[in-house]
Automatic annotation (TrEMBL):
Pfam families: MgtE_N
InterPro entries from the UniProt entry: Mg_transptr_MgtE_intracell_dom
Species, as recorded: Paracoccus siganidrum
Protein name: Magnesium transporter MgtE intracellular domain-containing protein
Boundaries of every Magnesium transporter MgtE intracellular domain copy: 114-173
Length: 180
């Protein structure tokens, strides 16, 4: 019999709260305090301990009710903040996608430009290409020489003065080592 008492009490006390939850009402309304419960002090006004206890219980109930209201307000504020964050996150993800697509498009454009430039140097005569490359910054000239056809690159380096050819070769080797 004892084993059934506790689950039975839990069921009796929990069913109204569950029913209110299913109806969309707040279960905290079951425990809401009122300023003056009717009939609570009837016949006990001459006992000071009972009056003090009733006032203490009423004050506690009012504090709990205010606390529950505060919690509900904070829940609402958190829900608004959470929705704001979701919207902002969606905006940021959209912006990130746009930035990545622009970056990809820019990289593709740069790659295409470099390929065109390399194709131009591949078609030039080695002496003409060497004259232009000697006037370019060493790292840029080395980058072009790395990308042209090996035979064309060899002819261009052969057409450059030895000191400049050594610098270009060193730059090309350093770049190759960095990429490994």
């Amino acid at each position: 019999m004892r084993k059934l008492l506790l689950p039975g009490l839990a069921l009796m006390l929990g069913l109204p709260a569950i029913a209110m939850g299913l109806q969309g009402q707040q279960p905290s309304r079951l425990f809401a305090a009122f300023a003056e419960p009717p009939g609570l002090m009837q016949g006990c006004t001459d006992v000071p301990e009972a009056v003090a206890l009733a006032e203490t219980l009423r004050d506690r109930a009012l504090r709990i009710e205010r606390y529950m209201e505060t919690i509900d307000e904070r829940k609402a504020e958190l829900a608004v903040a959470e929705e704001t964050l979701r919207v902002r996150l969606a905006e940021l993800r959209s912006q990130k996608g746009g930035i990545q697509s622009r970056r990809t498009a820019h990289s593709d454009a740069v790659r295409t430009d470099i390929e065109r430039l390399v194709a131009v140097y591949d078609r030039m005569k080695p002496n003409e290409a060497a004259a232009i490359l000697t006037n370019l910054p060493t790292d840029f000239a080395a980058e072009i020489l790395i990308r042209v056809q090996p035979e064309t690159g060899a002819r261009i380096i052969a057409s450059v003065e030895p000191r400049q050819a050594a610098l270009l070769t060193a730059q090309m080797g350093a770049r190759s080592v960095r990429n490994q």
